[in-house]
Structure formats: structure tokens, C-alpha cells
Backbone:
């Protein structure tokens, strides 16, 4: 079923919207959650929570052209929230590792002024990513947005783990340089 039709079902408050969302995107949403929480049962709970949250958020939102991105953002947010609330050491260590990698190339946001620039920073990062070849852009997004592991990325892209690490390191360095050229202090 087309995304636009699924959104119409949500807008009409038709519960079959949840069933169609799960059929079309369930496996991918489960994969996003599983990559973050690292527990199949918790990932399943997060996936189910995604549909409840989508039910709550549509309307007022109408993500006809980006339903998967809308649901994926909810899945990521709920999964990260679950990790924070459980404070499981092995799970939060992974999130901490990724946060540390990104601290090297993104401003801290410690000042009020930096927090106000959050939207501009997001736009600057988007411009950087769209200036990259598609493969590098996808690698970066899958690592830092979807939180895929190095080994999963290597397998998916057909690279060695070393190549993935080097590529991501170079992308972070280029992002840092790009942000500094746009006036951000990193």
C-alpha cells in the first residue's frame, strides 16, 4: 500500500493504518530499534510503541512523502529513550562510544547561543552530507543516525571493517573542517 494511503488511514483514525505500517515497515523499524537497544524483546516493544506514537502524531502531522523517515525517527527516539531509562551498561556504552566520535566534529551546544543555532547547524551538516557521494553519505547516516555497528556496515557495503573505520574518520574530519569554515567552533 502506498504511504499516502496509509497516512489517509491514520487521518481517518482507521486502525488498519497500524497493520499496514507494520506490514510495510515493521522489519526495518525493528532493525533500527534492535541496533540501538541490542535486545530483540525490547526492540519489539519499541516497534509497537512506534505505531502508538504515530497514531498520536498523525494528525497533526501528515508525512505522506516521508512516512518511513517519520516512523524511523520515532523508532530511534523511543529506542534511545529506552536505553537511557534502563541505563544498562552494555547498551549505554555503545551510545557513549558513538557520541564520543561525533563530539570531535560537532560543536558542544553548551552555550545558549549554540543551542539557538541548532537548526542552522543541522542545515550545515545536511549541506555537507549532500556534497558527499551517495555511498559515503549513506555510510555516515547509517552509523550516526541509525547507529549501525561497524561490522554491520562493513557487511552491508562489502567493505572491510578497517575501511569503514577509516572512511568514517575521514568524513568526521571533513565535517569538522566544513563546520569550521561555516563559522562553528568545534
Residues:
Amino acid at each position: 500500500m502506498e504511504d499516502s494511503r496509509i497516512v489517509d488511514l491514520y487521518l481517518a483514525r482507521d486502525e488498519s493504518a497500524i497493520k499496514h505500517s507494520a506490514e510495510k515497515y515493521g522489519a526495518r523499524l525493528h532493525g533500527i530499534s534492535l541496533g540501538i537497544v541490542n535486545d530483540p524483546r525490547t526492540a519489539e516493544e519499541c516497534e509497537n510503541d512506534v505505531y502508538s506514537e504515530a497514531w498520536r502524531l498523525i494528525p497533526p502531522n501528515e508525512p505522506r512523502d516521508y512516512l518511513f523517515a517519520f516512523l524511523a525517527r520515532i523508532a530511534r527516539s523511543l529506542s534511545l529513550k529506552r536505553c537511557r531509562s534502563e541505563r544498562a551498561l552494555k547498551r549505554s556504552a555503545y551510545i557513549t562510544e558513538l557520541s564520543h566520535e561525533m563530539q570531535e566534529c560537532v560543536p558542544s551546544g553548551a552555550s545558549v547561543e549554540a543551542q539557538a543555532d541548532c537548526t542552522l547547524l543541522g542545515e550545515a551538516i545536511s549541506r555537507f552530507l549532500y556534497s558527499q557521494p551517495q555511498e559515503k553519505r549513506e555510510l555516515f547516516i547509517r552509523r550516526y543516525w541509525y547507529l549501525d555497528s561497524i561490522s554491520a556496515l562493513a557487511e552491508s557495503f562489502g567493505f572491510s571493517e578497517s575501511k569503514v573505520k577509516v572512511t568514517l574518520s575521514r568524513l568526521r574530519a571533513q565535517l569538522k573542517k566544513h563546520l569550521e569554515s561555516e563559522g562553528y567552533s568545534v
The chain has a mean pLDDT of 86. The chain has ten helices and no strands.
